[in-house]
Amino acid sequence: MPHLLLAVTAHGFGHLAQSAPVVAALARRLPELRVTLQSDIDPGFARRRLPPGFTQLHEATDPGLVMAGPLVTRWAESLAAYRDFAAGYDRRLARQLATLRDLAPDLVLSDVPWLPLEAAQRLGIPAVGLCSFTWYDILRECPPRDQVPAALLDHLRLVYGATDRFIRPVPAMPLHWLPQVQTVGPIAQRRPDRRAELRQRFGCPADRPLALMQFGGFAGLDPLRAWPEQDQVHWLVQDLGGRPRRDATALADHGLDVLDVLGSVDLILGKPGYGTYAEAACNGVAVLHVPRDDWPEAAALDAWLSGQVPCRTLSLADLAAGRVAGPIAALLAAGRPTPVAPSGIEEAAELLEPYLRG
Question: What is the DSSP string of 233-255?
Fold first, then answer.
């Protein structure tokens, strides 16, 4: 029985959203595939994204980043977490080596912690990265990059550079420095158009555009709290915090999540992030996005999205004040774009399958 260990950064939901469709494709190709997820990501979210029957080791294998809500990175605290992680690295590596010896996976797939990759390399287990960036690239280009220890950067470059393969799904940072990088198409789930059913279920007018507010798994941003009710769109959010609005629906109140409505919305309001952008493009949805000026990946993501779907940038000041009617009207007037093919799913599965077939 082939065994895949998937190690995922729990910095938001984007890393699992990026890797899960590929794991599902592998499970279709290899019905006996055994999957172990190593991550401290929310188990409920993991169950909604991964094929059934996986096992989760609920533990982190990298420090991720410390956030102040979905838009601002606490870089000083994040770098302190990286220094602490590096200080205890030998102990962490010994634990990871023991885990891999015990599990004996045929392949370690990382999106995108480096600790499991290094442990796999030391044990002779195929080690593959799958991500639109590496933590080496993020730390090398982050705002306080002059404070990142050179030894940490050298270590990250060494580990990522020694992977058997690194799969880069677009949109992505360039990653030209990786000798074994292989670029594939976007990875996202396409979902059916259920807008007539959903409008009726949510009690909104039959011709009202549906708009998804999605900020990627981080609390701390709730624009609707301050916005007046309106009749331009019907907002879909994960939770309204017990504050009912006639112009909004909490998906959680209906037992739904983002994937259930993704193919039915006319607009997404969110932040630059792989999952949001790839899913919008692959479902033909316009995007109104708030900038992430301190996020090194954002420029590459924004440049790609602008060539795929109608999109506009909304300033933080306009978001806070609720000045969204004009940009929304312009995006809706542009019409629904042709969905982009999520070709990266099968392309990545094709690259990974041989490792699991022995």
Answer: -EEEES--TT---TTEEEGGGGT
Q: Say yes or no: 168 and 20 in one domain.
A: yes
296: CATH: 3.40.50.2000
List the one residue out of 140, 72, 135 whose CA is nearest residue 295: 72
Q: Are residues 182 and 225 in the same domain?
A: no
In which band, very low, low, confident or very high, does the pLDDT at 117 lie, cut at 50, 70 and 90? very high
Domain that holds residue 46: 3-187+343-356
Q: Rounded CA gap, 263 and 123, in Å?
A: 43
> In terms of domains, do 80 and 172 share one?
yes
- Would residue 80 be called left, alpha or beta, if left means φ above 0 and alpha means ψ between -120 and 50 degrees? alpha
Asked if residue 242 has pLDDT above 90, the reply is: no
Residue of 184, 21, 12, 30 lying closest to 107 (CA atoms):
30
- Is the pLDDT score of 65 beyond 60? yes
Q: Note whether 38 and 120 are same-domain residues.
A: yes
What's the pTM value of the predicted model, to 2 decimals?
0.95
Tens digit of pLDDT for each residue in 128-177? 999 999 999 999 999 999 999 999 999 999 999 999 999 999 999 999 99
- Residue found under tokens 């017990």: 242
**In-domain check, residue 338:** no
Under the banding of pLDDT at 50, 70 and 90, the label for residue 220 is low
pLDDT on residue 69: 85
